[in-house]
Amino acid sequence: MRERMEDYLRKNFDVEPKRPSEEALRRWRQAVSVVKNPRRRFRMVADLAKRAEDDKKRKKLQRRNSVKNFVLPDVVSVTQCEKIRVALYVQKAALQFIDAGNKEAGYSLSKEVSDAGFGISPDELASFARTHDTKGVEARGGVAGLAGDISVSLKEGVVSSKIPVRQNIYGLNRFVEKPSKGFWMFVWEAIQDLTLIILMVSAVVSIGVGIATEGWPKGMYDGLGIILSILLVVMVTAISDYRQSLQFKELDKEKKNIKIQVTRDGRRQKVSIYDLVVGDIVHLSIGDQVPADGLLISGHSLQIDESSLSGESEPVDINQKRPFILGGTKVQDGSGKMLVTSVGMRTEWGRLMVTLSEGGDNETPLQVKLNGVATIIGKIGLAFAAVTFVVLTTRYLVNKGTHHNMTNWSMKDASALLSYFSTAVIIIVVAVPEGLPLAVTLSLAFAMKKLMGDKALVRHLSACETMGSASCICTDKTGTLTTNHMVVNKIWICDEAKTITSGQNKDLLKSVSEKVYNILLQSIFLNTTSEVVKGEDGKNTVIGTPTEMAIVEFGMLLGGDFKSFSEEYKIVMVEPFNSIRKKMSVQVALPGSDMCRAFCKGASEIILGMCDKVVNTDGEAMPLSEEQRKKISDVINGFACEALRTLCIAFKDIEDPSSAKSIPEDKYTLIAVVGIKDPVRPGVREAVKTCLDAGITVRMVTGDNINTAKAIAKECGILTEDGLAIEGPDFQKMSQQEMAEIIPKLQVMARSLPLDKHTLVKQLRNVHKEVVAVTGDGTNDAPALHEADIGLAMGIAGTEVAKENADVIIMDDNFTSIVNVARWGRSVYINIQKFVQFQLTVNIVALMLNFVSACVSGSAPLTAVQMLWVNLIMDTLGALALATEPPHDGLMKRPPVGRNIKFITGIMWRNIIGQSIYQIAVLLVLNFCGKRLLKLTGPNASSILKTFIFNCFVFCQVFNEINSRDMEKINVFRGMFNSYTFMIVMICTVVFQIIIVEFLGTFAQTVPLSWKLWLSSVLIGAVSLPVAVVLKCIPVSLRKQAAKGHSDIHEPLLRGPELA
Question: Which of 193, 333, 454, 476 is catalytic?
Fold first, then answer.
């Protein structure tokens, strides 16, 4: 049966964690047949119809935007392609005609706008970027003129004190969002449960029949008890669901809260995207998301990816002739400054967002699988309920026939049949585990909230699950394994290596000439993307990437003045650093001369290869001999072996710059080799050891020199004696067979390109069947993050493009936080298994107890109110108790869960079947022989027995819930008192049970029990604990054979009482 169930789940309820196919999503929806409350069950499931509708709207808007960006060619040939382009041109002309009509109608300047000190209306200002109106911008005096109209200095930026006025006139940078559901909406959803509705109708009828037969108020108690129980179930369910929704809303807000670099009050600072206003000067660099519509002020090689708006994959060059930048797009290359002209709902992105409804995130594999489990159990429960109703009704009719009363029907008969129907419905209520899929959501919401506190923002729910299965982590070095607080530690210049200490200044280079000193400072302050700005305290602060900051700070330590160099030299061309070029180049005009000078810095081997000369102590360029080249290579390797990042700095004078269309790539003069220290983060070595103990292989993938990479990897405990370290270019040259052979031993890949990382991830996933987590921070890391099972983007160093393609954002860029994600991922998986084990046990016992009792004695021992209470214990309260257990250290001493693992393992079946046999046997014996065994006599004997059976049943579940805390270890109490949610649920369950039995007997059909019977109930429940110990000593065969078409299947849990 277990195999058939797993095959059924695999066939119908198997989806990929990332990018599941539309077919798989539709297949499992069609397979779900027994659902009591679709609105609640599928609340956290993607709405495929809405998603398809949104896709159509998005494509329609993208076509419209692509028309706006279309430029008519000079020559139109009569081909089908050109006819389409002419049609687009006509459509573009029509759109421009409409906009022109709007302008002729006039953008009037309201009194409110003019009184606020602005010279242009919000709608007119927004129209420039939206319609790419070059003439309109020129008519207003260009970007500088528009800046005057909105009262902002292009140098100083917005004045913070005037921000409220700007927000009042030009709007907030927020989109109109669908209002979130209120608490009563969740109550309404919870009450949509079909079985609860049927029970409420039955209860109302029962009240009517009861009053007619037994009089007021006695006749109403049974029906009223059911209604009150239903209301309790609905309220508890709604409160749990509402709290989850608040957690997801908070996480969603955090995901969208991007930090933007702006110039305000004359200084550069970071602000939230929500605080951006019209007039802000925004700094853009590679990988940034454009936060609003605007116009280019200045920039270098700026390219924007507008595919999100236009659908066009080709990047758009932004320059003074085409200065329009639209919000929601991304910076693909270059850098620049932008004047914000419209925010929020006036942007093109805002207009797109308002037309789209929420299609929802894809459901996770566990959610889908548990929907399958719920469907199977629901079908079984439905069959049992139908048979129970038929058996009870048949017995009643046979009994009535034997007494020749078939023709005499009264309200008492109607009441009996209604009671049988209610019993059947109650069996369905308990048998269909509606809470199974929702327990996943509860556990994930809890884990995501806790991970936020541990500096990890989970963007996709499925990542939490998948991280628990991770068998390999491919991590960056800089900022993840190291602190990212860089300082220049060594420098080689003029054939001399020097060590830098924090107290040194210009005297450090007293052995070199003034000419060498000046050219070094030029190369530092001109060839950089960093800026030196004054902070609020008046002190100079360097803003930029850690490497750039380290070099600029070194230049300032030498006595250089960043501002004076920036003002003296005019930058002509810039080629920003990226992970493919591995260098940054800049060309500047030399003052008082027609010549230009190019500066270049970057990866040591690359820059050294571009040089044919070297600066001597007098500042003269001398030919670089092979012997000198080898000596410099030895210096570079020496720095690298000390775990220093090495950079070479070079320059080249260009006598005829007019003929050069790009910055030169060769014949440079080497100035210096710089060694930058980036210490390993505290705790990284321990975190790596934790991963290795957990069966997770850690591989370092870095763009650094191989000697630097090996030194850091050894310090972190990643590179072992039998491990392999290679360079990216060597890896790419290998055949598929060679890759397959070396990857198991590969621990370090240096000088890697994003393509190398992507290739490695594909090999690990497809050939070696690993579950791969990959870290990334750059724009070019996006393909590897997208390809990996779990993409981990860096929150501090990461670009917005990297974050958008990631599943988890590591807010502090720390490797230890990645290990925390893995720990919580394992916890989610294990917690859901615990809950499933617990709930299936309750399902089986409740089904069999009611079914057997009904068939044998003609009545069910548990009433409708009692079963509803049991349903609440095993559903919402059970999920709260077991699905929110925090992780423990033992989780990271197990091997990772394999791909396509059987979710309900042999170990779980052993525990379920063993506990079910014990509980069913005890409860049935009590049901049929209880009066004799307990020596109950008198008129209340039956009521006392039924109450005692109910009490025993509940305490069996209480102690089985404790057993379920660990499916393998004998000591289930370890850490229990530290799990506050679990303890609160346990205490509440026991307290409410006492109240129901002792004080609510009128509604629950119970009677007060003596202290002896209470003690007996607790002891019968507590016997579950030694039963569990015996069960855990029974070995379970750990079958590792793969299912057809699947591989890497193994049990996720260790076994045996030795783990107690």
Answer: 476
